[in-house]
Amino acid sequence: MSVDVLLHFIEQYGYLAIFFLLWLGIVGLPVPDELVVATGGLVAALGYLNPYYAFFAGYLGVVSGLSIGFFLGRWVGPPILTRLAKKKKFGPYIDRSTALIQKYGTFSLFISYLLPVVRHLVPYVVAVGGMTFRKYALYSYSTGLIWALAFYFLGYFFGNHVDHIIAVSRHYGFITLWVILALIIGLILYRFCCFKKRSNKTPEGDQK
Length: 208
Prior knowledge:
The chain has 208 residues and is mostly helical. Helices cover 77% and strands 0% of the residues. The chain has 2 domains: 3-159, no CATH class; 161-199.
């Protein structure tokens, strides 16, 4: 799904579109989560949606979808992983998720956000492994906040090129995300400094 299609869809259905597109990502909806969050930022930048509500809808959609994955893993247990593992589409990703958890433990919750599909499977695996929801929520929700902020501001500031940037980020993972974060932080600081300089200047006409 292209940015133009997403843009039209979100313009038409608003915050609910952002939420449900991300919430349904857990069932394999063929729309990159990054693109949905970034398009939410783009729509907010264009003035169609409130920036705060648009971000909150996206963040709530992300954590809701991943929470459902955790509880499905807790309630259904190994059978759902066994069934998914038999499918060619999910088998390699389940192996990758399991290997990631075995190697990095709890830190895998951070890494999984940068890996498409894996981010939706890790909640199942850690739930089956016995991780408590409190621990899962602490690490997953905090990481999700950083992840959502990064792609939201990406769409807000660089909306016209967001689909190309996200394609690169999905390919190079950590490196691109850190570059994106650095650019966004730099841009925010630059705009803040410019605003502060303007506010400190007194127009000549006001001087007596």
